[in-house]
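Hey, resending since the last one bounced:
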Amino acid sequence: MKLHLKYFLFFVVLVILLSCVSIIYTKITIQIKYDLIIENATFLYETTPPNIIDTTKFDKKFTSPNCSTFDIVGPFLSMHEYHSYYFTHKEFTEKYSLLHLKNTYVLSQCIFYSKNTFYIPRRACQNEFHPKFPLSVKVKNITGITISICHAWSSKYAHMIFDVLPPLTLLPESVLTTSTFLVNESFPFVFDLLGCFQIQHSQICEIGKETFFYCESIITLNPHPFYQIHGTLLTQLRDHFVKLFELDKTSAFRFVVFNRQKTRMIRNFGEMYYEILIRFPQFPWEMRKPLIGFKVSALFYNEIKFLLGPHGADFANTLFMQKNSIVCEMQADLFVSCYFYFSNFLGFHHVVMRIPHMGIQLLSQNLAPIPIIIEMIEKGLSYL
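The structure tokens again:
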């Protein structure tokens, strides 16, 4: 009896071990089956994959408001005076397309891969992919529609505002609420912003650096959105938020001055702000306090009549300011003109000065030239 029991226990243990081996082997087989090994590949830049099944072209005329103006104050800006042309030129023809692709791989930064070729639509913003061959990657399948308009920095707040969200105004609600949305990084505000278009948390998929998504159906924008700010899409985006958050119900009244934290922080901000209070006591100046939540930011900026601060993502919130408002921007070492388009297309008075040594530093040494700041404010206030 004891001998039979030993044989029975041995048989049970053997069956369990064989089952485990079978499961492990099955997993390995499945993993190998779905892995993609690329021995070598071709790279094509500024182009899209050949798997296009449909193209929706937009050829739209846009006229910016007559009230928008552009002024330069102080030195270090002579080479950038040509930006004033965009404010005197009020009519634009904007061309862009929605592309519908099928059966295509998408990887980090929304780079496409098909038939041993990597397609990089916008090299300037999709330049952080440097594979070493042979390249072995995990593959995940996505059925249904995938929205692919991200890039290396598209999950940064400002790029979400002017690169990612405007194209969404072209898509019907039925597509937005049922598609998979690819992002490079999933910060809390990414979910907050996409939620404004009824894109749920479960629809948002972060692209890993070692994962390719094999997508049944893809929607993307051409040219790929990166600092390509279209007046038609920007105004449609603002109209969306005006309706969503019930903006523009009251006239703007706030006169707001702000500083950046850490990078590009103005070291003598306190002295500068004190001088503003002394020189212009007739205006209700205030320092911007930390704002929690996208809707709170939208409502606050909708009340701003005059905004002054160092260049950065805060200026993306000028999207919510009202026509004829004043934007005073301190440009840094790298001159970036994206918010000039906001001002021209939305009808703001944009005044700019430059601190040429103001870079991204762990310990800020940036000193604002207060006389030039005062001159910039005087110019801005002249539009009241």
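The mean pLDDT is 90.

Sorry for the duplicate.
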